[in-house]
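Q: Here's a chain of 213 amino acids. Please give me its 3D structure as tokens.
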Amino acid sequence: MQARVKRPKPDPTSPAPAGEVARSAGEGSENRRPSPQPSPAVAGEGAGTTDAGEVEIRAVRKAAYALLAGRDFSRHELVTRLLRKGHRRELVEAAVEALVQQGLLREARYAGQFVTQNAGRGRGPVRIPMGLREKGVAAEAIDQALDEAETDWVAAAREARRRKFGLSPPADHRERAKQARFLQYRGFSSEQIRAALGPGEDGPDHDDHHDQP
């Protein structure tokens, strides 16, 4: 009967053989999943640029909506106001075009309101189109607004004269010429001025040649 040889127990404090360390490391690497890496679209500069662009687009739209909430604008006027706020032109043009397509920006409506408001302020049909052209409104929209305006221009000229000079008619040729020039400056035609001033031998054109301001 042979005596069994007792093998010494491994000492946990002693280093493991090099082969076993390498084999253990290899088995662990096969079972581990690689940690996820951020994609270039998220971590790179492109994502930051896209995010900044979206923020600016939203800022342009918000600014446009805020302006239109107060009153109507012509297309040219709205673009100018947005550019003054520091937004890029290409983003402004795109945002304004979207408003036109949505029916939120209508130059015909703006022109009609402009005519009505300025007629109420004593301006005539000669001067009002000049103001619309300065706002960048197209000629077709201006003509349409004037044609559709429910304004009695003679009555408007009479009211403008009354506000400035009172109810009494012109006392003499010089006073008549003075009032005629005032109405011409306000944008009324010669025919409208003659009707507003009432009967008289001197029309506004004749008075302008003989009486200077």
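Q: Can you summarize the key feature?
A: The two ends are 147 Å apart (CA to CA).
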